[in-house]
Amino acid sequence: MPAIPRRPHDSALAHSAGAPGPGDPRRSTGRASQTPRDARDGGRHSRPGTLPPVPGRRPFPSSLPAVAPAALLAAALLAALALITWQVVSHGALTAVDDRLGGGRPAPVPQFLSDLGGLPAAGTTAALCAAVAAWRARRRRWLPPAAAAAALAAAGAVVVPLKAWTARTGPDGLPLGDYPGYYPSGHAATAAVAYGCAALLLGAAARLAVRRLLAAAAAVLNGAVGTGLVACGYHWPLDVVASWCLSGALLCAVAAALRRCS
């Protein structure tokens, strides 16, 4: 009787008799996979298999870090303005600073410094710088002069009603008469907005060192104007500081507007 031939264990019979399935470390090659797809964890539940970091993805818009500090600074300055106004109206503890530092008399040098805060000097400077910035702007050439004019108009729209509402007398102690009041200082507000806008307009397309130099020059100039106003006895110190707070908030808005034409 002939012998029955024996079948060799080929690969098909081996797999059908219990070959490992997907995900099993035993493969037909006899070794485990290096990076199994089902065991890969990319750190993102919605996208399995994606390895962080994902290029081109940002958690926040890129413009947020540039806008948020200016908005926070403007809010802080307006809060300081509200605090000073409350102290002036209620004759609070801050007015003691005015009693110690105010009450000067006109002199040639302080008079010259205070005149720099007038509209002829400060307004002309801002207008010339706005014209230069409009000529250098790549787009929206109307925006630099419009932003400077709007800031100056907004300063006047806030200063005049505050003067009439507070009706604060000056360091000379004389009755107001037809003058609405001394708080806040119109000259200090005009100078701060005008010279601040000039620094922002000229430094819009300049290097960082130039922008810092222009900002320092505007700060020194406004400090000189405020010193002249107090030294001549035209305003109390709090009148000047309140105008600086208002003007600083307006300059934050001007800086945000100038980014659109750079």
UniProtKB/TrEMBL annotation:
Q: Which domain of life is it from?
A: Bacteria
Q: Which UniProt keywords apply?
A: Membrane, Transmembrane, Transmembrane helix
Q: Per the record, which residues fall in region Disordered?
A: 1-60
Q: Which residues form the Phosphatidic acid phosphatase type 2/haloperoxidase domain?
A: 143-255
Q: Which Pfam families match?
A: PAP2
Give the stretches traversing the membrane. 66-89, 116-135, 142-162, 182-206, 213-234, 240-258
Q: Which SMART domains match?
A: acidPPc
The record's section on InterPro entries has: PAP2/HPO, PAP2/HPO_sf
Q: Protein name, please?
A: Phosphatidic acid phosphatase type 2/haloperoxidase domain-containing protein
